Amino acid sequence: MDFRKKNGTRVNEFLLAAISPTWESQVALFVVFLLVYAVTLIGNTLIVVTVGSAPQLRTPMYFLLGNLSFLDLCYSTVTAPKMLMDFLAEKRSISFDACMAQLFFLHFVGAAEMFLLTVMAYDRYVAICKPLHYPSIMNRQLCSWLVAASWMGGLIHSTVQTILTMRLPFCGPNWVDNFFCDVPPVIKLACTNTYVIELLMVSNSGLISTGCFVILLTSYTTILVKIRSPDGRRKALSVCASHLTVVTLFFGPCIFIYARPFSTFSVDKLVSLLYNIITPMLNPLIYTLRNKDVKMAMRKLRSKEIIADSDGK
């Protein structure tokens, strides 16, 4: 390791924090989070395959849901494999370049998911408030453009965050107060005043997460206000409940982490675990447990596989 405190000398690696202080608890957490990651991979992959293969799910809502599950797969994979390896490692280190790559993909996929969740809220608004015009407004071409725009927005956001971070001088210390590389803990290690950078971070990450969350709440509030009958409101709330749950689980921690500069709390690592590892696992469970169409399509897909296997034998 080389992190000499000379001007112009960059650290070669960062040391990541441990989630738990003892070896025994690290091993136990390895088993727990290995299961969590496995459930995340299986659940989200199952939704992607189901949405892609079931004719009855070829609608804008399920097209967006399939893209959300794919983003959850990518989002969890950015941090989970490295975290699992570090549970069993004596030295939890990551090279400078790998740290910047992890930071880039974390914000790339995370911001794309924020934009996609906002698109999904617009889809529900049109479906509930303008049902007669829904097929013409939310056509496949527009959905594809909106998904592409979500990815492009994530790419632009991530590129800005990564460039701002990489341009900072890092000459030591090199201990990151988290189990993965993210902008807030990394820029605090820079050998310069980061006041302006942290303001830019809040205006970028904080504004995106808070702005999208406000748009989402406004969208669902508008839906409930425009529907006059109590029965209609209950049905609308039932349709949107799964989306609202996912939005709360994802945006709440993001706003807590990125909308406040200049300070760190001991609970930050637990909050990071929630939106990086736990939420991508819960998303498919929330959608499949509450959605009859998805569950029916999964059963049909399973029946086809069983029939195919029996024919093959």
UniProtKB/TrEMBL annotation:
Domain of life of the organism encoding this protein: Eukaryota
Cited PROSITE patterns: G_PROTEIN_RECEP_F1_1 (PS00237), G_PROTEIN_RECEP_F1_2 (PS50262)
CDD domains: 7tmA_OR4Q2-like
Subcellular localization, as worded in the UniProt entry: Cell membrane; Membrane
Cited SUPFAM superfamilies: Family A G protein-coupled receptor-like (SSF81321)
Family, as annotated: Belongs to the G-protein coupled receptor 1 family.
Protein name listed in UniProt: Olfactory receptor
